[in-house]
TrEMBL record:
Gene3D superfamilies: 3.30.70.120. One of its GO terms (molecular function) is enzyme regulator activity. The lineage of its organism: Bacteria, Bacillati, Bacillota, Clostridia, Eubacteriales. InterPro entries: N-reg_PII, N-reg_PII-like_a/b, N-reg_PII/ATP_PRibTrfase_C. This is Nitrogen regulatory protein P-II. One of its GO terms (biological process) is regulation of nitrogen utilization. It comes from the Bacteria. It comes from Desulfofundulus kuznetsovii (strain DSM 6115 / VKM B-1805 / 17) (Desulfotomaculum kuznetsovii).
Length: 96
């Protein structure tokens, strides 16, 4: 199993959630207002100096589904030239 931690510009929320739904990702945790700064991005602090914010989704996917789901997420990222959308893949060792 893998944990997909996806962060993205709030403008892509409908696209990302629709994509996850169409890919059969039924279990997830979502954060609606995520603030921060990436290595190659401007801060998104939802204030007058650094407006805007992101969303984040964490979903655990099985080994059988992971490549199919990651392929679609990579296609989406490519369409955006990698801007405003990141996916981090982490191993899931134990679920309690």
């Amino acid at each position: 199993m893998k944990l997909l931690f996806i962060t993205y510009d709030v403008d892509f929320d409908e696209d990302v959630m629709g994509m996850l739904n169409s890919l059969g990702v039924t279990g997830f945790t979502k954060w609606d207002r995520v603030l921060g700064k990436g290595k190659n991005s401007e801060p998104r602090l939802d204030d007058p100096v650094w407006p805007g914010f992101n969303c984040a989704v964490a979903a655990v996917v099985g080994d059988d589904d992971q490549e199919r789901i990651l392929a679609e997420l990579k296609k989406f990222s490519s369409r955006l030239d990698g801007k405003g959308f990141k996916v981090f893949v982490l191993p899931v060792l134990t679920v309690i």
